[in-house]
Amino acid sequence: DAFAILLAAHHPHLELIGVSTVHGNASLAQTTANAGSILTALGVHHIQYYAGAAKPFCREAVHAPNIHGDSGLDGTELLPKAHVGPVENGNAVAAMREALMAKPAGTPWLVATGALTNVALLFATFPEVGDHIRGLSIMGGAIGDGFTNAPMGHVRGEGERFGNRTPWAEFNIYCDPEAAQSIFSNPMVARKTTLLPLDLTHQVLATRAVQEKLRHGPSNSEGKGASDVRQMFNELLVFFANTYADVFGISDGPPLHDPLAVAVILFEGYEDFTLDDRKGERWDVSVVTDGLHSDDDHPRGQVGRTMISPSEEKGVGVRIPRGLNVERFWNIVEDCLRLVDDHLASRDEREAFA
């Protein structure tokens, strides 16, 4: 999520108009605190953020301390306390509607990098938003069955699998499968949706070389020390790399899931940053909602599994890319880190003369 906010806040072709938080990697209170800290670290604490849903539609919340730590963003001591808190007494869903509808029709994107409760409530409560937006980008789901050649990982005692929460299910969809199903079953929303499943995100591994490039910049690998913000992002990556290697056996580097959901918005602006959707492949997507949140296979079943079939009607259905220009993606992340370095440096200079 931190890298996703980095791209949204500092890429010159994007305007971040708000952030809503949701249950997921940690409790809502913790994910909300994390959002405020990241906005502060990036020097954009003027961006308003709202606490959203604390639990799924009809289930208890589940978290992922084994992957992201107890805070949901473990691994660094450089994460500052938020300069500004979330909007008090604000309704996240209403705020999302207001911010999106204030932009010209056909221009705003909604990006989802966690459980889909807030997003599902938005379209259920304010269906006009589905017609107004340009697109919905979702990091979530896992297809499997050779959809791509990405390494999906192995779990000790379970063998190869394509889910990262269960053998069948990716975490964000698993958290609130009913919310996910309500989105994918909405024809207006589905045809504007791009889904980034693990089959794609596991192609984008932050190898040691990538980690060093992002830490120091492309021309400073042996020069002066990393800036605080680069060091912070590096420490978050290293923590994630270690947990992903321990749990899933992927040792080349951790996949950087969430910023891909922001990066897909940019594919129209770069000739060399293309998404491979097989020249317009579209899919009908459904989510398994039968089963309980449980560590036991029998009551859990395949709940949260993302099921797809080819859309029978051209131009209708969800876009699920099978590949992208990975090198270009990392260059975009590096560009944004350079821009945040420049932004923070200029802010410090302004404050020094204030």
Enumerate the strands of the largest sheet in spatial order, edge to edge or round the barrel.
Answer: 3-4-7
Distance between the termini: 33 Å
Biggest β-sheet: count, sense, barrel? 3 strands, parallel
Number of helices: 15
User: Can you tell me the overall shape?
Assistant: globular
Amount of helix: 25-40%
Overall pLDDT metric:
93
Quaternary organisation: single chain
Helix-strand pattern: HEHEHHEHHEEEHHHEHHHHEEHEEH
Q: How many distinct beta strands?
A: 11
Query: Any low-confidence stretches, pLDDT <50, length ≥5?
Result: none
Task: Please report which band the strand proportion falls in: under 5%, 5-15%, 15-25%, 25-35%, 35-45% or over 45%.
Answer: 5-15%
Class from helix and strand fractions:
alpha/beta
Rg is 19 Å
Describe this structure in words.
- The chain has about 350 residues and is of the alpha/beta class.
- About 40% of the residues lie in helices and about 10% in strands.
- Helix 1 (about 1-10) crosses helix 15, helix 4 (about 90-100) packs across helix 5 (about 115-125) and helix 5 (about 115-125) packs across helix 8.
- The model has no long low-confidence stretch (mean pLDDT about 95).
Kindly list the characteristics that best describe this protein.
354 residues; alpha/beta; 3-stranded parallel β-sheet; two-stranded parallel ribbon; 15 helices
What is the topological layout?
Blueprint: H1 2-10, E1 19-21, H2 28-41, E2 49-51, H3 65-68, H4 92-101, E3 109-112, H5 117-125, H6 128-132, E4 135-139, E5 154-155, E6 159-160, H7 171-175, H8 177-184, H9 187-190, E7 193-196, H10 198-201, H11 208-216, H12 228-248, H13 259-263, E8 275-276, E9 283-287, H14 297-300, E10 306-310, E11 323-324, H15 326-352
Parallel strand pairs: 1-2, 3-4, 4-7
Antiparallel strand pairs: 5-6, 8-11, 9-10
